[in-house]
């Protein structure tokens, strides 16, 4: 379904703000790449699942990621963006993260899908604070969990209870994931001109200063610690 909203609506009442348009397109393109690759990874994880019920659950989660991607693609088209070019700009950052964090087994794959994705999602939620209500609503809708966290927590906790030696290995894996994820998020926040401009804002549209940006990454780290505890692992 094509997004038929008027430009004034999909640009949060700022259709003549070129910098804002660029920032919104960049944010949605970044999120779209994440959703598309998330779908691919969940589909791959489903094929490696030890039980058919796990395979079915992951396939359902993958379908949700695909639906989220479709929503973002529609909005990008409505904004007149070149969807392929916009997404391709962010592909190297995701590919580098996945290259450096290839899981060695099913459990590491689950923790990565939970911890790594969660950091990226938290980062995008934080960035969405710099956009207007229409865009923020779309971003938050695309970031909905849809039960992924509950699935991973249950499987990882069961594995740890069955073999306590698993906990130490997965805790180390979680620390590696958070380091790599935060590194990529910082790189994108600092190096992408459109997102930087969106975060910095203008006199008419106040943005995020360096102190607030530092606080944002502190909150990302704290959220990671809580998620590791939910898995029964030390951060």
Give the topology, please.
Elements: H1 7-10, H2 18-47, H3 52-78, H4 83-88, H5 91-100, H6 106-127, H7 133-142, H8 148-162, H9 165-191, H10 193-200, H11 210-230
Helix pairs in contact: 2-3, 2-6, 2-10, 3-7, 5-9, 6-8, 6-9, 6-11, 9-10, 9-11
Strand content: under 5%
Number of helices: 11
Instruction: Indicate the radius of gyration in whole angstroms.
Output: 18 Å
Structural class call reads mainly alpha
Q: What can you tell me about this protein's structure?
A:
With 235 residues, this protein is mainly α. 77% of the residues lie in helices and 0% in strands. It contains eleven helices and no strands. Helix 2 (18-47) packs antiparallel against helix 3 (52-78) and helix 2 crosses helix 10 (193-200). The longest helix has 30 residues, at 18-47. It is globular and about 60 Å long. It starts with 6 loop residues before the first helix and ends in a 5-residue tail after the last helix.
Summarize this entry quickly:
It is built from eleven helices and no strands.
What keyword list fits this structure?
single chain; globular; 77% helix; mainly alpha; 235 residues; 11 helices
């Amino acid at each position: 379904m094509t997004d038929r909203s008027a430009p004034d609506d999909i640009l949060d009442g700022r259709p003549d703000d070129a910098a804002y348009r660029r920032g919104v397109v960049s944010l949605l393109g970044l999120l779209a790449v994440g959703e598309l690759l998330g779908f691919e990874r969940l589909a791959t994880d489903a094929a490696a699942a030890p039980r058919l019920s796990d395979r079915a659950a992951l396939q359902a989660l993958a379908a949700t990621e695909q639906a989220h991607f479709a929503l973002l693609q529609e909005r990008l088209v409505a904004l007149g963006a070149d969807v392929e070019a916009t997404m391709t700009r962010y592909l190297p950052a995701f590919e580098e993260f996945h290259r450096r964090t290839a899981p060695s087994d099913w459990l590491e794959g689950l923790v990565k899908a939970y911890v790594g994705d969660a950091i990226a999602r938290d980062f995008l939620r934080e960035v969405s604070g710099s956009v207007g209500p229409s865009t923020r609503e779309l971003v938050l809708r695309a970031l909905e969990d849809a039960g992924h966290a509950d699935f991973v927590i249950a499987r990882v906790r069961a594995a740890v209870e069955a073999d306590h030696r698993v906990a130490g290995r997965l805790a180390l894996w979680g620390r590696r994931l958070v380091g790599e994820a935060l590194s990529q998020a910082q790189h994108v926040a600092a190096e992408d001109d459109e997102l930087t401009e969106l975060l910095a804002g203008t006199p008419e549209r106040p943005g995020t200063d360096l102190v607030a940006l530092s606080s944002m990454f502190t909150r990302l780290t704290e959220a990671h610690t809580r998620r590791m505890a939910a898995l029964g692992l030390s951060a």
